Amino acid sequence: MDRDVHIAAVCGSLRDASATRLALERALEAAAEGGATTELIDLREYDLPTFDPDRDREDAGDAELLAERLREADAIVLGTPMYHGSYSSPLKAALDYSGFDEFRDKTVGLLAVSGGAFPVTALEHLRSVCRALNAWVLPHEVAIPKSHSGFEDGEFVDPSLEERTATLGRRAVQYATIEPDPDSFEGDQNVGAEGK
């Protein structure tokens, strides 16, 4: 690598005691062990109003700052709790304020957490959004079920799940400079991402 790879993880949970945040921190730790610089983008720290297409991003709270952080990353890990079978509204707002400039040809890793069964549909929905933004989504993803019993004192209870999460961080570094080709069909149809 000619330069350090920079990995940003976006935490779509606003909960103080967030299992999503704990898992993303572990993924970033593994990415740092792999030689990357890392940043946790904690959406609790950003003022992101509900997306309004008639409002310029520069006039929408911290939307421009968020977009700048995403553009600076070589790879992005998106983390979310599963709400009603999908990903969280804070993450939805963050993605709505993003576009091709932030995601086109960028490597993206996915991580989802749920209090119950595996959060597979949240991962599927995020994968579809990333494809529409012409991102290259890692095949390896992390689904953390039964999150209330998955961590103890801030640490994973299940070593295999911790290793799966660490692998996501390592893969984000490994594939951060991939040059995907061709663009996705979904991206060609996504006029909403233009000009963001």
From TrEMBL:
Cited InterPro entries: Flavoprotein-like_sf, FMN_Rdtase-like_dom, NAD(P)H-dep_reductase
Residue ranges annotated for the NADPH-dependent FMN reductase-like domain, each copy included: 6-148
Family annotation (SUPFAM superfamilies): Flavoproteins
Superkingdom per UniProt: Archaea
Cofactor(s) needed: [4Fe-4S] cluster
Gene Ontology terms: cellular component: cytosol
GO molecular function: FMN binding; oxidoreductase activity
Assigned protein family: Belongs to the SsuE family. Isf subfamily.
Protein name: NADPH-dependent FMN reductase
Naturally occurring in which organism (per UniProt): Halopiger xanaduensis (strain DSM 18323 / JCM 14033 / SH-6)
